[in-house]
Amino acid sequence: MSNTKLSNRKLSNRKLTLLAPARDLEVGKAAVQAGADAVYIGAPEFGARQAAGNSIADIAALVEYAHRFDVQVLVTLNTLLHDDEYPRACALAHDLYKVGVDALIIQDLNLLNYDLPPIRLHASTQCDNRTPEHINHLKQLGFRRVVLARELSLEQIRNIHHTTPNIELEAFVHGALCVSYSGRCYLSEVLMNRSANRGCCAQLCRQRYDLLDKYGNEILDDNGLPIHQRYLLSLQDMDRSQYLAELIDAGVTTFKIEGRLKDRDYVTNIVAYYRQLLDQLINSNPQWESSSTPSIFEYDFTPDPAKTFHRGATTYFLHDRATKMANWDTPKSTGELIGKVVEVRGKSMRLQLLPHIVLHNGDGLCFGDKGFAINRVDGEWIQVNQSVDILPRTTLYRNLDTSFIRTLNAKRRIPIDIRFEVTSGGYCLTIGEQSATFEATHQEATNPQRALQTLREQLSKLGDTHLTAATITIVANNEVCTETFPYFIPISHINQWRRQLTQI
Fold this sequence. Notes:
This protein is α/β, with parallel strands linked by helices. It has helices at 25-34, 56-67, 86-98, 132-141, 154-163, 187-192, 244-250, 264-284, 402-406, 448-460, 491-502, and strands at residues 3-6, 14-22, 38-42, 72-77, 103-106, 120-123, 145-147, 168-175, 237-239, 254-257, 288-290, 296-299, 313-314, 336-345, 348-353, 364-367, 370-378, 381-384, 395-400, 410-423, 426-431, 434-439, 443-444, 467-476, 479-480, 487-488. The protein has four domains: 3-177 and 235-314, TIM Barrel (Alpha-Beta Barrel), CATH 3.20.20; 180-234, no CATH class; 336-406, Thrombin, subunit H (Beta Barrel), CATH 2.40.10.170; 411-502, no CATH class. The chain contains eleven helices and 26 strands. The strands form four sheets. The protein has an eight-stranded parallel barrel with strand order 2-3-4-5-6-7-8-10, surrounded by six helices. The radius of gyration is 27 Å and the shape is globular.
């Protein structure tokens, strides 16, 4: 399936930004292609995801690529620093500025006392950005944007915007949640000597725990069973996709997707999903526009958050406290509900699937924190890769849809106008903002209709460039050619002229 969307720029001063994570250069490029207005990526060091650092050379390459589409590149320098690290962090900031990075995301305010380059500064969510007073203080320090605490409600966000209207507000809308406030976790540091604020969280919130009373007795759940070895601290993933308009109304202009450790498939799917939602809002409201260059997006798939890493969904505290935020059964991706087990015979299972579900060889299924792969689909029966301790009537989920993953391709093109005009000594070609005149002999066409068709076809072949023809206007003798073109031009000449302008 091919879905094509045109993101139209409106004449407005309210620019909205879809901000996507980039684990590395290739994921960053994929985010741009899928529809991101900005991407954030980790520097070689001092990022809050130690395993997601990138070289200056790769960041420079991402900047060059992203800026073709007016997509910004933000870099995370968002750990707390030791005293001897400040000079090195400052030098790194200068290196990033030199390669064209658009902004730095920082947590350690002491870094402001050093000779930073004249680059935009964004206050990380780990700066505890939850009160108007604190955010106004950050504004006075020179921050242009704050990443709001995930725990804020719409009303709290609206109050912050009303109180401090001249600072940009960025809010998380999708991705993993930390059980600690705004990611300011100290559990990992205390128990494992691995500081989450230094980029090496041990993910203790995704481990099993018992729940005991003060006498050491296991507390019972609603079913009367002991709360024993359950994932008590594991939160579901945030999903605020249906509340983007409310967030905009509250003052948010940047919508952030969590996931600097996520792969290309996840980023492509989730970015495309939010791109389509934001474009629907932009196209229906003349006061809003995308912050990047208006583009045409072509997707070979229908975006669906349940098709890639997905722990279940919560809006968290957006409308006060959500009724369910945690998943005690598993910290892993659950994916989409597919149906139930009817019968088990060794490595074979008979399933009752939901009407819209089609399984494929290689798909991954799960129940609770256990999972297995499908070797072969045979009608309502499946052959699996291992013996599974599973009972009839068990609810199953699919956390790997191999058929969907194979379709995860996205293309982004900038629509431009092409004009081809006959001159006294040859021809003039204009592609977007590039124009050139070519000397050539005017040779009369034996088939003027075919000449026009060929000329239009060749001018539209923009190949592997990031451009696509929005309009093609052909002019001869001061008249727009709609049915015929009077001159024959060799295809090789047309292609040469087109390539010359598109390679500038």
